[in-house]
Amino acid sequence: MKPEKVFAIIDSKQEKFIQQLKQLVQIYPKGEEILQRKVESSLESVGCEVEFLKLHSTQVQLHKEFAVEEAIDMTKRIHVIGKIPGSGDGKSLMLITHPDADPINPDDWSQPLHEGVVENGKMYGWAVADDLAGICIMTGAVEALNKAGYKPKGDLYLMCASAK
Predict the structure, then answer these.
(1) Residue 42 and residue 81: Cα distance in Å, rounded?
(2) Which of the ends of the chain has fewer CB neighbours closer than 10 A, N or C?
(3) 33 vs 77, 80, 151, CA distance in Å?
């Protein structure tokens, strides 16, 4: 499979992907569960087997992480994991992103926070770059690979982990 074919598919779906990102920006203020349900739906639409998990941060195994238990918010957070099974002939790959959970300070904003305004080729909205765009990039890339006929040899995991 030639990468040019995948890039052409991505280019042809640019407006669709922008609308998906805009939709996530608009859903964001409705809460973590509604946003993660939308992510779950997006993962299912590209062929993932999906797990929707509510976990305390301490239930996630840390390996060489900077977080200590005392600094972790003990609220159960929502994590969505999609899996596209591979043929078994290759290594697995996991792509991870997160919807931002930082408090919103709108004082310095000149655009509405939750509309996904596009101006001069840039989208403005809360969490666009950190990291709602990453969610759309993951699912958009998999959609393009699927359309191009790519079948992974190893399992492919797409994860949207709540961050705080």
Answers:
(1) 11
(2) N
(3) 9, 10, 31
* CATH number, position 154: 3.40.630.10
Predicted TM-score of the model (pTM)? 0.85
Residue 77 to residue 115: CA distance in whole angstroms: 25
pLDDT digits (tens, 9 = 90+) for 74-89: 778 899 999 999 999 9
Tokens of 48: 């993932």
Question: What does the block give as tokens for 148?
Answer: 């191009």
Domain that holds residue 146: 3-102+111-161
Per-position b or e across 95-130, b if 16+ CB within 10 A of its CB: bebbbbeeeeeeeeeebebbebeeeeeebbbbbbee
Whether 79 contacts 55, CB under 8 Å: yes
Q: What is the DSSP letter of 2?
A: -
Domains in the chain, number: 1
